[in-house]
């Protein structure tokens, strides 16, 4: 008996909906992996540029080779979505694993190349989607099946939109109705143009969903499982609408694309969809488990092998940064990085250490008490605090009784820091200080809009570990700071050692010098950290100004300055160092040497 021809039950609206979903996933994958590469390898501009380039070149290669799949578009589309649901999360975990390995520097290019294989594979598979969906859409249009009520509604909407846009296009382009074609503008839109339109729309929505929902709400790691789940759902929905209609048996209702040779693949699709769905539903625990595995090993790599045990206690992601709290324990092997303490709690913002128990107090005393010793403890002293979202610097400022304008871009972090048990012990409720004004705003934007001048500007910001921080270490930023100083005003900031970060130091000082801050006063914070009766140098700071200021003479009598007054009597203003052949860092012409690598 000759089998009856196969008539798929899917419709053009369904194919357009699937186009929208898979495009959403593909473009969101691009952003997810770009951010992942930034976390693991650093340098957002570099990683985003490489990821976009590799993704689109792979997308083009997949599209170029897609003609070989169009003889069986239904089966191959199902396979593509299943493969994507498998490859994306496994590729994501592979990159994380590579980030935890210790290997010689000579192998870095090889590791980097292997790490890019997932995004190349995702781009290659995604390149098949659009041609396959176009072929399917054309084949459905060729069948004379009466449209459903939903299809008719979509058709009417498409027709109205087509007419409206036709008026606009007609004013700028030559438009002529094709002979022998229906008068309905919707019928004149080719299957390729319609699918391409939904593809672009899905890409836009995917970008918006990732930026404004997935990344800030569930975090980077769960996002990849959510997207893989959508790919699996798309495959299963498509399969469920592709059954034979001439043989209404239970077997015939199973997805036709897998056929007799693809039942294992269909089982894999069900398993992967269920697994990624479970991971998406349990986004919090899954994200914490994977991130703890990664960051614990990443932090351990900063020390000699076997010297430090790291245990992540909490992680969360805001719109602007990743926050990690962890305990680090010295094992007794190698040098102790914090002068005798065996275990301490620390907090990181992205890859930069923000706070550790052994030096939290001395750091903020050095940042705040030293420059404030040059001014009266009264509300007549105006202070601008940039950063400091943990409120610890504000605690020191309220003890001086000065007026404070506080600017930090991350309102979510500031809100959480108010009640975080670890941070609360260092800010003592300073967010309630009556003489401060806090703005959740970009510091650059605030400086451009404000006309206020300050006696002291405190920079309590993350180190220059990523391109995202480059603007805060630019000529333009420091020029703005200089313009907001009073006649005797100073800028206080912590700085890196010239012995450990020579490239950063030379680029940094050439940058601030070009900004007009030609005088500097380097100093340290001091503390007897290990309680052995001897004082150690802890953090390195620098005062910056357009010209030399008064010497440090702590007349306002804070306990810290009284205890270490003799340490600061030798601090002198010197010319800001300049280095030949080193380009300053600018917003529009960045110098990557200023990054800490």
UniProtKB/TrEMBL annotation:
Q: What Gene Ontology biological process does one annotation of this record name?
A: polyamine biosynthetic process
Name of the featured protein? Spermidine synthase
Task: Identify the catalytic residues.
Answer: 460
Q: Which domain of life does the UniProt lineage start with?
A: Archaea
The text of the family note is: Belongs to the spermidine/spermine synthase family.
Which terms in the Gene Ontology molecular function aspect does this entry carry?
Answer: spermidine synthase activity
Name a Pfam family for this protein. Spermine_synth
Q: Which UniProt keywords apply?
A: Membrane, Polyamine biosynthesis, Transferase, Transmembrane, Transmembrane helix
Enzyme class, spelled out: transferase
> Domain PABS spans what residues?
292-546
Membrane-spanning residues: 12-33, 45-65, 77-101, 107-128, 191-213, 219-243
What is the species of this protein?
Haloarcula hispanica (strain ATCC 33960 / DSM 4426 / JCM 8911 / NBRC 102182 / NCIMB 2187 / VKM B-1755)
Cross-referenced InterPro entries: PABS, SAM-dependent_MTases_sf
Q: What EC number(s) does the entry state?
A: 2.5.1.16
């Amino acid at each position: 008996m000759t089998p009856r021809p196969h008539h798929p039950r899917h419709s053009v609206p369904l194919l357009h909906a699937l186009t929208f979903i898979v495009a959403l996933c593909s473009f969101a994958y691009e952003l997810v992996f770009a951010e992942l590469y930034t976390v693991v390898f650093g340098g957002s501009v570099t990683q985003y540029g490489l990821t976009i380039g590799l993704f689109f070149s792979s997308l083009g290669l997949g599209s170029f080779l897609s003609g070989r799949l169009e003889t069986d578009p239904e089966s191959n589309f199902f396979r593509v979505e299943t493969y994507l649901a498998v490859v994306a999360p496994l590729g994501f975990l592979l990159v994380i694993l590579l980030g935890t390995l210790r290997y010689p520097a000579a192998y870095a290019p090889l590791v980097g190349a292997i790490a890019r294989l997932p995004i190349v594979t995702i781009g290659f598979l995604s390149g098949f989607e659009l041609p396959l969906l176009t072929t399917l859409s054309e084949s459905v249009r060729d069948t004379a099946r009466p449209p459903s009520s939903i299809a008719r509604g979509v058709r009417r909407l498409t027709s109205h939109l087509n007419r409206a846009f036709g008026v606009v296009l007609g004013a700028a382009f030559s438009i002529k109705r094709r002979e022998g074609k229906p008068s309905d503008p919707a019928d004149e839109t080719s299957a390729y143009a319609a699918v391409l339109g939904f593809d672009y729309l899905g890409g836009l929505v995917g970008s918006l969903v990732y930026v404004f929902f997935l990344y800030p709400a569930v975090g980077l790691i769960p996002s990849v499982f959510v997207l893989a789940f959508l790919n699996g759902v798309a495959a299963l929905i498509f399969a469920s609408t592709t059954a034979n209609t001439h043989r209404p048996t239970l077997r015939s209702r199973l997805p036709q694309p897998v056929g007799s040779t693809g039942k294992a693949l269909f089982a894999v699709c069900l398993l992967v969809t269920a697994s990624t769905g479970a991971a998406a539903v349990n986004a919090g625990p899954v994200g914490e488990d994977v991130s703890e595995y990664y960051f614990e090993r990443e932090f351990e790599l900063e020390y000699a092998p076997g010297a430090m045990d790291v245990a992540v206690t909490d992680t969360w992601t805001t719109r602007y940064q990743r926050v990690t709290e962890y305990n680090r324990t010295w094992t007794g092997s190698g040098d102790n990085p914090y002068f005798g303490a065996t275990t301490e709690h620390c907090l990181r913002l992205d890859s930069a250490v923000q706070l550790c128990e052994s030096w939290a107090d001395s750091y903020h005393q050095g940042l705040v008490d030293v420059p404030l010793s040059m001014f009266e403890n009264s509300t007549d002293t105006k202070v601008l605090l940039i950063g400091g979202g943990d409120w610890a610097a504000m605690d020191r400022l309220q003890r001086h009784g000065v007026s404070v304008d506080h600017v930090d871009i991350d309102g979510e972090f500031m809100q959480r820091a108010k009640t975080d048990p670890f941070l609360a012990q260092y800010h003592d409720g300073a967010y309630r200080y009556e003489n401060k004004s806090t703005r959740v705003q970009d510091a650059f934007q605030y400086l451009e809009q404000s006309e206020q001048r300050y006696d002291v500007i405190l920079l309590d910001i993350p180190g220059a570990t990523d391109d995202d921080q480059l603007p805060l270490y630019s000529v333009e930023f420091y020029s703005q700071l200089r313009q907001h100083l009073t006649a005797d005003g100073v800028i206080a900031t912590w700085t890196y050692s010239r012995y450990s970060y020579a490239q950063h130091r030379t680029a940094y000082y050439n940058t601030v010098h070009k900004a007009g801050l030609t005088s500097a006063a380097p100093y340290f914070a001091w503390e007897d950290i290990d309680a052995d009766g001897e004082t150690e140098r802890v953090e390195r700071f620098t005062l910056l100004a357009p010209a030399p200021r008064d010497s440090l003479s702590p007349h306002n009598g804070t306990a810290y300055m009284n205890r270490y007054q003799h340490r600061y009597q030798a601090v002198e203003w010197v010319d800001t160092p300049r280095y030949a052949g080193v380009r300053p860092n600018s917003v529009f012409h960045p110098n990557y040497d200023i990054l800490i690598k």
